[in-house]
Sequence to fold (494 residues):
Amino acid sequence: MAEETKRKLKYAIVGAGMAGILAAIKLKERGEDFTVFEKADRIGGTWRENRYPGLTCDVPAHAYTYSFEPYAEWKALYATGAEIQTYFENVVKKHGIAPFIRFNAEVAALDWDEARSQWHLTLKDGTRAWFDVVIAASGVLHHPRLPNIEGLQSYNGPAFHTARWDNSAPIKDARVGLIGSGSTGIQIVTAINKQVAKLTHFQRSPQWVMPVPYFAYTEEERAAFRADPKLIDAIRYSDEYIGSVRRFTDAITDLDSPEIKQIEDICREHFEASIRDPALKEKLRPNYRAACKRLIYSWCYYEEVQHPSVFVETGKIAGIEPQGVRMTDGTLHELDTLILATGFQADRFIRPAGVTGQGGLTLDKFWERRCTAHLAVAVPGFPNFFMLNGPTGPVGNFSLIDIAERQWGYIDQLLDLLRGGKTRAIAPTTEAHADYEVRRIAAAKKTIFAAGCQSWYLDGEGVPASWPWSYDAFVQTMSKPDLSQFSLAAPVAA
Ligand code: NA7
Fold:
């Protein structure tokens, strides 16, 4: 066997959102040679693109940070989008990451060169470069899904997707239409209902709402967090939070568990106790099981939706006209502003970048049937290509930062094999991945996400596209790669 030589790798990180920043910090700490490619002119990903009123992360703020960067400044139990964006900007500054980021640099293509064991990266502007490793940290929910409603283009006023918020659109004292009642639509109701003349909320499906507490942190509490970050850890690692993540994943993966019954009971009792008008109550009553769609965590939605300015329209939309939204019963809702809270294309990941691996296999082709990655981090036939928050990873009401950190811990151990010269290229085997998918799909079909509702958690065949096992199983799996599941090319010769 050839003698192994240590290798100085060149890394391309695609995306400067939460996961890309994480990878950059970790590589910089090791003194590695990396470049972050960001299509926009600022960092932040989701938290840069979403600026709608009411934008709040539904994970407690102290749990929605990097484990190594606690933050004392959160104003309340749940952080606003603007606060989170500030947090990431501060982290980037503190770790000196900005000089490593190329902004306005959209990756158009990545082509694997077998002879060189390298990726050839092409930017949209034509710039090209070679890299040994690609870290795809391009986010999940970043391509808006516009509704396929006839006449949308004919509407006279401002109409925009929530991730393309138009600050100039009339909201105050205006007649506002809002299509969509996912987490985004619900948060917008709670934020603008008191400003508008009338808010017509077009709701195709009602939501289950998990009541959560809400409180502001006092200046004294923030000072205490600053003085003693252990107080923050005590929240982050409390049974209240970590225990709730465990209970949540136990609940969604076992439909007979006491945990799922508890979630259903809490949501039902909250619903029954909160809505006063019987007609509105029937409009808001879901006909599917709680947690099938992403649960709405809210401390105020049921109260705010009962504000007199809000009208929940549950009829079928016939089309959009210059003046507003026409229902199939003939009613026309005349509007000054139309907000489209219709969600995202959740199956894009690094695309539209064209990624071509071994033997000309493209990600488009590999993902023709469903988006998948081995244990959510790597793809057979695509060596030295690793994903953070890639397909089939855990999703639910918990922190994706924690998920990305654990995935990084796993990927970093695979990178050690490349760094140490043990191999030039590493990718999961087709067999190991096929076995993972068979087990994953069988388990996914038994989760609550498959219990008879539509959501972005489902793939094109209606199978939940996520990690279908417990949080502890995920943590355990990510703690150490099983190298028998990977194929290693020849070592780097001395
Ligand atoms: P979601 O959760 O995908 O919600 C989209 C909403 O838009 C949902 O209520 C859909 O109704 C509705 N929708 C989509 N298309 C239409 C049409 N054509 N007509 C009427 N209503 C429509 O997106 P969000 O932005 O709220 O949340 C995404 C994630 O971001 C969230 O889970 C958090 O992780 C953060 P449906 O339920 O399909 O009947």
